[in-house]
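In response to reviewer comment 3 from the previous cycle, which asked for concrete evidence that the modeling workflow produces usable outputs, we include below a single protein chain processed end to end. The sequence was submitted unchanged, and the resulting structure tokens are shown without manual editing.
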Amino acid sequence: MNPLLHAEKCTLYSMDFNIIKRAKFDHPDVASITIIFEDEPDFEIPKEFYVMPENTKDDFITYHCVAKSTTPSEFCVFSTKRTYYIIETETEDTPKLREELRVNISMKVEAVLDGIPTPQSITIKNVSAGGIMFVSEHRLEPGMLVSFSFAFGNNVVPVKAHIVRVRPTHLPDIFCYSCRFVDLPRQSEAAIRNFVFTEDLRQKRSKL
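The workflow returned the following structure tokens.
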């Protein structure tokens, strides 16, 4: 199968958020991503890195990828006599692999962050019954606690969440955080789950 047929532009980031190189990527199945270089890489490809699609900057989507091999393989297109260089990777960031339904939103809240004495503004970019993803200008670390009130409809749900993973964004001074809710009462979880399903349905209907 030709990985170039559905390839999209992307930027590769190291685990410490430095740009590695711009490239293209293909998503052949739910658990893998193919990285495509137009020229043979003149640098050492790391075992782990992030892939940021160029057409999803507003959603702050990135994929954490683990290379099956850090040595590129050649892919030849005989019709153009062009050689490309391929890295195959595995990922667990595909939406179909997630256990919980999540919806994209853009909601600013005041949050208490570990180590920062005053509440800070963060922007929640997506939410599920299990956690959130938010962006902030503050550099936080995995394991730190975030506390805020999640307001939707007639509900105001106080929540706490642990930061699970830090991700790069296309903005150099903005960081993206994947978080998992902790000690969430069943009633609060049910309210958030209902919001997620209702909002998902609303968004799907708006596209019809």
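The chain has a mean pLDDT of 89. We consider this sufficient to address the reviewer's concern, and the full set will be provided in the supplementary archive.
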